[in-house]
Amino acid sequence: MRHLEAPPAADLGVRQTRGAMDSRRTVFLDLNGTLVAPVVVERLQDLTLIAGVSEAIARLSRTGYVCPVVTVQSRIEKGLFSEADFRAWFGCLSRELAAAGAYVVGPYVCPHRFRTPCACKKPQTLLYERAAVEHGLELRDAYVVGDSAADIEAALRFGGRGCFVSSGCVTEDADCARGMAKCSRDSMAEVVDWILAEGAAEQQCS
Ligand SMILES: [Mg+2]
Ligand SMILES: [Zn+2]
């Protein structure tokens, strides 16, 4: 018969670290149609921030949420712009957001066309997993905010919560996305209202 033993010190260390990780809650953000519009664009310079998005992300940042941006940019493989061009453009966007107190990390990019088989395209979870490893995040119960079914399905696959937002313009698979989503709203501001209310309710229960 085995004696019940206190866990080794190393295990306690892991538990304490995990406690700290839980407090860094995560909201994955889609880019096109969620943060910037229009959804279909030939030139990166034609994309602009959707009204109210910086204020909404700033509220998440103030509450301690980490917000990785996960995006499919099939125009990179099509040759309309390079991944370096995209990352430079994103750098400008994230500086503009940071100036408003809205902090995002990434981007985590799938550069492939929709028909190209790859391991990184949503709703596959590779890019979310990569972000979680790089920033020490828990995927379970993390939120995904997006305007298409692939965003919401990715959340389902890794045990997260999908939030559908229709602020950009309505995508073809909007009804499918709504059906799978935990919450469905017309603006990022309203999605963030919902997330913060959920987070507050969970803290009261724990
Ligand atoms: Mg989108
Ligand atoms: Zn890919």
List keywords for this structure.
206 residues, alpha/beta, 4-stranded parallel beta sheet, two-stranded antiparallel ribbon, 8 strands, globular, disordered N terminus, binds magnesium ion, binds zinc ion
Bound molecules: magnesium ion, zinc ion
Strand content: 5-15%
What does the radius of gyration come to? 18 Å
Q: SSE order in H/E notation?
A: HEEEHEHHEHEHEHEH
CATH topological fold name? Rossmann fold
What does this structure look like?
This protein has 206 residues and is α/β, with parallel strands linked by helices. It has eight helices and eight strands, in the order H-E-E-E-H-E-H-H-E-H-E-H-E-H-E-H. It has a single domain (23-205), classed as 3-Layer(aba) Sandwich (Rossmann fold), CATH 3.40.50. It has helices at residues 9-22, 53-63, 74-78, 83-99, 126-135, 149-157, 174-180, 188-205, and strands at 27-29, 36-37, 48-49, 68-72, 105-110, 143-146, 161-165, 183-185. It has a four-stranded parallel beta sheet with strand order 1-6-7-8, sandwiched between helices. Zinc ion is lined by residues 110, 112, 118, 120-121.
Task: Give a short synopsis of this structure.
With 206 residues, the chain is of the alpha/beta class. It is 44% helix and 15% strand.
Topology, please?
Layout (H helix, E strand, L loop, with lengths): L8 H14 L4 E3 L6 E2 L10 E2 L3 H11 L4 E5 L1 H5 L4 H17 L5 E6 L15 H10 L7 E4 L2 H9 L3 E5 L8 H7 L2 E3 L2 H18 L1
Helix pairs in contact: 2-8, 6-7
